[in-house]
Prior knowledge:
With 312 residues, the protein is α/β, with parallel strands linked by helices. It has two domains: 3-171, no CATH class; 187-310, 3-Layer(aba) Sandwich (Glutaredoxin). It is 54% helix and 9% strand. It contains eleven helices and five strands; from the N terminus they run αααααααβαβαβαββα. It has helices at 3-27, 31-40, 44-67, 75-97, 114-134, 143-164, 168-171, 218-233, 250-257, 270-276, 302-310, and strands at 207-214, 239-244, 264-266, 282-287, 290-295. The protein has a five-stranded mixed β-sheet with strand order 3-2-1-4-5, with helices on both faces. β2, α9 and β3 form a beta-alpha-beta unit. It is elongated, with a radius of gyration of 24 Å.
Amino acid sequence: MDFRYISSIIIRLAIAALFISSAYFKLYPIEYFEYHLYKIGFSWFWIQWISRLLISVEFFLGLVFLFYGNLKKYIIPSSIGLLVFFTLYLVYQILTTGNSGNCGCFGNAFMFTPLEGIIKNIATILFLILLYFTDKLPIYLSNLGNKIGLLICLLLPIILILATNPPDALIIFDRYEGKVLNKNPDLELLYQSEKFAKPTVDFRRGKHVLALLSLTCGHCRLAALKFHTLMSRKPNLPIYMILNGEDQNLSEFFEKTLAKNVPYSRLNGKGFIELSEYEVPQILFINNGVIEKKVSHITLTDVEIEEWLKHN
């Protein structure tokens, strides 16, 4: 059998697996990928659409490498273009924050530094160039059949992603939205712990976004990651975390969330239970000791916080 034919099949399968696995791990959970886009400078409104579009493109390319015959005219150049885009972002990340943290190439499933992500992308581009000159997979379908196949490969990921992981704006209903809560929690509980240091701010005065989080709760970790991302661009946002859990879970919490740039205190026992009302994450907008509203970590944005701070 022709060596070029065998090698082209192997490269096709490898690149298809790379694109499909990369898209899948970015999708679940998608928040990690969304927060990377926020750091570039996109607004929260556009992030939820752009993230799903880019993931759909990755799924599309993976399917095309599996099933489509003619790759040279559009598919290989498009794949190289997408990888160049991701590589430029990783270069920007190294220049601005250094070669640390997870580049997000495979979501939160596999940890790659930005430099490792760049090396992976360059290697993939080289294989794509090799495939451009060696691909000999026969084209079994007519031009019409190829076009229909491309359309299916394009629409299928978009439909499945919107059905299984739709943008937050389409599904989130905040039961507190539009309601004036004006609840008076017993904030003294935050300052009565004998085991942990007291908070460094006084929540009974001024405006604060107070987040009650559990160290082992998955949604709490996503919330903390979002706080880290928000404060990496806007460090003056008045966000403060109250963390509940055992000491052995603290290092893993910060490893996953990178939220060491967010001020926090610890609180366990009845005090945390009473404040959180058995539900985490709790994100409270507090004005002079009064809870004005509660929000979801999914819908929370920097714009919402800034608008709230402007009003008395």
